[in-house]
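Researcher: Next sequence.
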Amino acid sequence: MLHSTITKTGQTTIPPAVRAALQIQPGDRLEYKLEGDFVIMQVYPGTRSLAGALACTKGKGLSFNEIRKSAQAYEIIFANASDLRTIFAGL
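Model: Next structure:
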């Protein structure tokens, strides 16, 4: 059976086998749920789960003014598409 010790400040080290099995990494958040005299622990990945989520090469090499003009054109397209709300509301 795996075990760990609680420090004076309430901290503990999660055994390596548990960290590996649950794929716990530094920065992850742990949530605890009490079930009688047991605890259920759920792992929520930290920012590592976002790696690459915002990666985009679109706009690379463009000046700020070129990006601004592109964004304004995009806003105009969607401003003219406001009638789509009415169309999709009936679906």
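Model: Residues 1-49 form a domain with the Pemi-like Protein 1; Chain: D fold (CATH 2.10.260.10). The radius of gyration is 24 Å.
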